[in-house]
Amino acid sequence: MTARWRVPRSRGALSGVLLLLLGIWGALAPFVGPYVDFAYTPDKAWVFNANRFWLEVAPGIATVLGGLILLLSANRLLAMFGSWSAALGGAWFVAGGPVSTLWTHSGAAATGTPIGTETKQLAEQLAFFDGVGVVIVLLAALALGRLAVVAVRDERLAEEQATAPPLPEAAPPIGATQPLPRRYARDPRQGGPPPQRTPEPGDQMVAPRPPAPRRPGM
Fold it and tell me: What's the pTM value of the predicted model, to 2 decimals?
């Protein structure tokens, strides 16, 4: 069962990279856009306020986190969590502007106003909020769909790992020596066969023991 929750990291690698890049863009666009005259008001670089944090930086961080998890995780449940994190970040890019009218006194969106001509304003709205959010949700949904389905290859790999026999014990290396049985010489001053030693564990017979010589007259 545990093996079924494992997925190759390549399963979500492409989606993870794209989500990572989109999250970085979504979080940094309001701060670097004014350099090329492509921004929402206040159209000055690196102006930070609470509205920009909650409507652009926070969903960008959620998307970056989800992309990193998809890119690095080999666990199915953790990768699915990354997909959901990115999907929620993308959805907030789209829905954050209309929802922000609930906490502004004027009833206008807290995102600010896009600058430039009508065509440029449409491009800014897509690049900063609606467009980038929809693409993030699409990529996260594709990754989530791939992770939710257990592929035939994953099922076969899980069965092979479950039925694989245990690895055999390592054999002693070739050329390893075994201890030789000890032999004791017979004291010539005493008769009778030499004393016998009790074999110890690990001893192996390498040659038959020669019979004791027969004494004359026996």
Answer: 0.69
